[in-house]
Write a structure and sequence with these properties.
PH-domain like, 390 residues, 31% helix, alpha/beta, 11 helices, Glycerol-3-phosphate (1)-acyltransferase, seven-stranded mixed beta sheet, single chain
């Protein structure tokens, strides 16, 4: 039995139970609308189970989703996923050339492909940066472009959070663009319509349409998102429990089931806090040893071809201005080409031809390393620009 036939079998068997489960547990309602394929379905990304929720809108259409490479390292689960669903592997923090070719091959075989254009779940409740190559892919692959938007997902199951907060979540098709229409458009115009169609802002929506997202511990694990205290300006001193996020300095805020802080100053919601800390990160001063921040109980692995991993070491992760030191291994920031996070606390990055994974069993903030890497890249690009203008 071919993968897509197995997928159709699964759809018929599990569609109604899955739809009932997501309605009862997540408060999720999908819009069902048939479209002629093959299609390239481009969506925003808000929860780890987005592929399943998106698929519920297409009960008669098998979809091959572009999936993070780490899903191919889950033993029996990975084998079942590949056998039933035939996903397309995408290495975070690595070149996407192989993934693009796999998408084009699938479309030319008549297979509909699902793509989450941001490459990762939102951290702050807002649709993030979309890879510009997505527009070129949509124009050249020959498929009908279907834009799709998930709404209410961030407050239902925030990437940084613990557990599900049942409220209201929906998913629906926004636009359908046939291949002929796409070929008549410039890539920039396609890029603009993709960004427009899939854009979601959890905080704007909550202000316009307030919904209660029920949870006994709405702030639990928020320290995996927030790393800089607005009161004392220190990194790594925030802790969460129940409905509260607190700092060692005494700063404390309650996060309510309405998705807002009480009191609302200095930030009305976690998205505003995240935007502030990214701006302040550039002004962070190192200690007397040049250290910016660090975390203990870290494991480092190298990811090899064939989805295999090799244990490198265990110890401390330390961020310096121009160097990342992990478990005794030193990586120059200028040589770390790409960095990303999957789930909430697993960092992956490429350094030359090598690909690494950093993880920990404890709750810690991986975000600050990703934000600092982005800041370092911006500074390097600025220096190059200033040099070329002389």
């Amino acid at each position: 039995m071919e993968p897509m036939k197995r997928y159709r079998f699964l759809l018929k068997l599990l569609y109604k139970p899955a739809r009932l489960f997501f309605r009862l547990v997540y408060g999720y309602t999908p819009q069902v609308r048939p479209v002629e394929g093959p299609c390239l379905i481009v969506s925003n990304h808000v929860t780890t189970l987005d592929p399943v929720m998106l698929a519920l809108s297409f009960p008669d259409t098998p979809i091959s989703f572009v999936s993070s490479e780490h899903l191919f390292r889950k033993g029996l689960l990975s084998k079942l996923l590949k056998w039933f669903l035939s996903p397309i592997s995408r290495k975070k923090a690595a070149s996407a050339a192989d993934t693009v070719m796999a998408i084009i091959r699938s479309v030319r075989q008549g297979i509909t492909v699902g793509l989450f254009a941001e490459g990762e779940c939102t951290w702050d409740g807002q649709t993030g940066w979309v890879f510009p190559a997505t527009a070129k892919l949509a124009r050249t692959c020959g498929a009908t472009l279907v834009t799709y938007r998930l709404e209410g997902g961030h407050l239902t199951s925030p990437r940084w959070g613990k557990g599900i907060r049942k409220g209201k979540m929906t998913g629906h098709i926004v636009g359908v663009y046939p291949p002929q229409e796409l070929k008549a458009m410039k890539p920039d115009a396609i890029y603009e319509l993709i960004n427009r169609d899939i854009r979601e802002d959890a905080w704007e929506r909550q202000l316009a349409e307030p919904v209660v997202y029920k949870s006994k511990a709405p702030a639990e694990h928020m320290e995996t998102l927030t790393y800089l205290c607005p009161e004392c300006g220190r990194v790594g001193t925030l802790h969460s429990k129940g409905a509260y996020i607190r700092c060692d300095c005494g700063f404390s805020r309650k996060f309510t089931e309405m998705g807002a802080f009480e009191p609302a100053e200095p930030f009305p919601n976690p998205g505003a806090w995240d935007a502030w800390q990214k701006e302040r990160l550039a002004a962070l001063e190192p200690d007397e040893n040049g250290l910016l921040f660090s975390d203990a109980d870290i494991q480092l692995r190298e990811v090899l071809p064939g989805h295999k991993t090799v244990f490198v070491g265990k110890g401390e992760l330390r961020q310096y201005a121009d160097e990342l030191v992990c478990c005794g291994e030193r990586f120059a920031m200028s040589e770390i080409e790409n960095m990303a996070i999957f789930t909430a606390k697993v960092i992956v990055f490429s350094c030359g031809e090598r690909y690494f994974e950093i993880k920990s069993k404890k709750v810690y903030n991986a975000r600050k390393y990703l934000d600092y890497h982005a800041l370092h890249v911006q500074r390097a690009e600025k220096k190059v620009g200033e040099g070329s203008s002389l």
